[in-house]
Amino acid sequence: MDRDDPQDVGAAFGAMILGGTIGEEPPPPDSPLGRVRAFTAEYGEDALGPEHIGAAREGRPLVP
């Protein structure tokens, strides 16, 4: 994080308020975000819909 960049500082503050952190490494593959990233890498961003986000959060399979 660049402490001189207002956007970086704002993002870090927002994450802190929400109880999270900003990381530089990719998310774990079994996390909801990791599963969504794997889905979009295979099928493209246009194939991703709100139902996929819900399925990832609930641990259900992401189907195209």
Structure report:
The protein contains three helices and no strands. The chain has 64 residues and is mostly helical. α2 crosses α3 (50-58). The longest helix is centred in the first third of the chain and has 12 residues, at 6-17. It is elongated, with a radius of gyration of 14 Å.
What's this model, at a glance?
The protein is mostly helical.
Main attributes of the structure:
mainly alpha; 3 helices; elongated; 64 residues
Protein topology:
Blueprint: H1 6-17, H2 32-43, H3 50-58
What is the overall shape? elongated
- Unreliable stretches: none
Structural class: mainly alpha
Biggest beta sheet attributes: none
Order of helices and strands: HHH
Q: Tally of extended strands?
A: 0
What is the oligomeric state here? Answer: single chain
What is the number of helical segments per DSSP (H or I, 4+ residues)? 3
**Whole-number average pLDDT?**
93
What gap, in angstroms, lies between the N and C termini? Answer: 35 Å
Report the β-strand fraction as a percent range. Answer: under 5%
* Radius of gyration, taken over Cα atoms and rounded to an integer in Å: 14 Å
Helix content: 40-55%
